From TrEMBL:
This is Protein kinase domain-containing protein. Its main location: membrane. It is a single-pass membrane protein. Keywords: ATP-binding, Glycoprotein, Kinase, Membrane, Nucleotide-binding, Phosphoprotein, Receptor, Repeat, Serine/threonine-protein kinase, Signal, Transferase, Transmembrane, Transmembrane helix. GO terms for cellular component: membrane. It comes from Zea mays. PROSITE patterns: PROTEIN_KINASE_ATP, PROTEIN_KINASE_DOM, PROTEIN_KINASE_ST. Belongs to the protein kinase superfamily. Residues 54-340 form the Protein kinase domain. ATP binds at K82.
Length: 387
């Protein structure tokens, strides 16, 4: 791995039409950042041209860190350009973090980073364009995508996401916790293969410490209780979020739906109640009609419940989850009451730096709802995971 002295000024000044390899940037000031791989440096002129001056018609979506545009590079290659908003919480540090983390990683279930552009205060990330939008918009969103998610497709999506996370958790060195697994960060390619997006919140596990959390980020509803309450981050926080996602994929509904009766609003509670009354089938997405394997669907729901167990220790690792999904290992029947969103909602924890949480945009309830209240969280903490 080459360690490059990274400088905004030096990047900015190499804004020639041709993209340049970041490893060619040798000088100056800003930060030491380890970079390998072929992260390209794009000029802002090049990206303006690719997006027709960032015209609104080319906007793919907007998240909490800024807007994402479809761009066409000179060779006709399509890319997704994430323009980080200037008031974004994602500052230079996070930007460089995102860059260094993902530049090194290639897996068929992870979105590929092509490069970046820094133009004065403006920062942009250039990703591989993923054709079929996110699960939040297609499977769970209100807008009709026209995509039909048959049972096999759903199982394959779950397995793909599990494989991608297994790669981050167990095969990449240092290991990576994604920290923001949710439906809007699962993109689908033209064959509906899942690609995990957004490593901006991911952190390396440094040295012999298995995790460090300096601030909590994420979306309420996917957050593991121990992470939400104490800021304790381990790979098991991703396992929890994955469990929520798995339940969403099987049920075809979002983790929280404020339009439903109060006792129906929270998917996790609903699934647990049905598990207790031995009626898990009734949560399976009705639009599937009879196009599913009941036993397999029950198995997936149980795996989802295992992933969202209150205690991180008893949640399975992602590689075990992947094996269970593929039917390569048994699914334990020792399932206890999960850590539930409503437990977290009652929290009043003092903190140095409160963090505002929001539901995913498509499901945000009216401002009067208690769900949009600010949850003040504990500051950073370090917990050593047993190997
Ligand atoms: N590589 C990509 N290819 C195609 N579309 C993308 C790509 N990256 C993002 N998008 C689209 O842009 C939208 C906005 O993405 P972004 O990551 O900024 O926000 P988000 O994931 O929806 O929310 P949040 O900021 O809370 O994570 C996505 O929902 C997706 O539809
Ligand atoms: Mg995203």
């Amino acid at each position: 791995m080459t360690k490059v002295k990274f400088s905004f000024q030096s990047v900015h000044s190499c804004s020639s039409e041709a993209s340049q390899n970041l490893t060619a940037v040798h000088s100056i000031l800003f930060a030491d950042i380890p970079i390998t791989g072929n992260v390209k440096i794009y000029s802002s002129k090049e990206l303006r041209k690719a997006t027709r001056n960032f015209c609104p018609g080319n906007m793919l979506g907007e998240g909490s860190f800024g807007r994402v545009y479809l761009g066409k590079l000179n060779k006709g290659e399509k890319v997704a350009i994430k323009v980080l908003s200037s008031e974004s919480r994602q500052g230079t540090k996070e930007f460089l973090n995102e860059l260094s983390v993902i530049s090194n990683i290639t897996h068929h279930n992870l979105v590929k980073l092509h490069g970046c552009c820094v133009d004065g205060g403006q920062k942009m990330l250039v990703y591989n364009y993923v054709e079929n939008n996110s699960l939040a918009q297609t499977l769970l969103g209100n807008s009709r995508s026209g995509i039909r998610f048959g049972w096999r497709t759903r199982v394959d999506i779950c397995i793909g996401v599990a494989d991608g996370l297994t790669y981050l958790h167990e095969q990449v060195r240092p290991r990576i916790v994604h920290r923001d697994i949710k439906a809007s960060n699962i993109l689908l390619d033209r064959n509906l293969r899942p690609k995990i997006a957004d490593f901006g919140l991911a952190k390396f596990f440094p040295g012999n410490m298995t995790h460090i959390s300096t601030r909590v980020a994420g979306t309420l509803g996917y957050l593991a209780p121990e992470y939400a309450i104490r800021g304790q981050l381990t790979r098991k926080a991703d396992v929890y979020s994955f469990g929520v996602l798995l339940l969403e994929i099987v049920s075809g509904r979002c983790h929280t739906d404020p339009r439903l009766r109060l006792d129906e609003q929270f998917l996790l509670e609903k699934v647990w109640t049905l598990y207790e009354s031995d009626d898990l089938e009734s949560i399976i997405d009705r639009t599937l009609k009879r196009d599913f394997d009941t036993e397999e669907a029950r198995r997936l729901l149980k795996i989802g419940l295992l992933c969202i167990q209150d205690s991180p220790k008893i949640r399975p690792s992602m590689s075990t989850v992947a094996k269970m999904l593929k039917g390569e290992c048994a699914v334990s029947d020792r399932i206890m009451r999960p850590g539930l969103i409503t437990d977290v909602m009652d929290l009043k924890v003092r903190t140095v730096e409160p963090v505002q949480f929001s539901l995913s945009p498509s499901m945000s309830p009216a401002p009067s709802s208690s769900l949009v209240s600010t949850v003040a969280l504990a500051g950073g903490s370090t917990v050593v995971e047993s190997p």
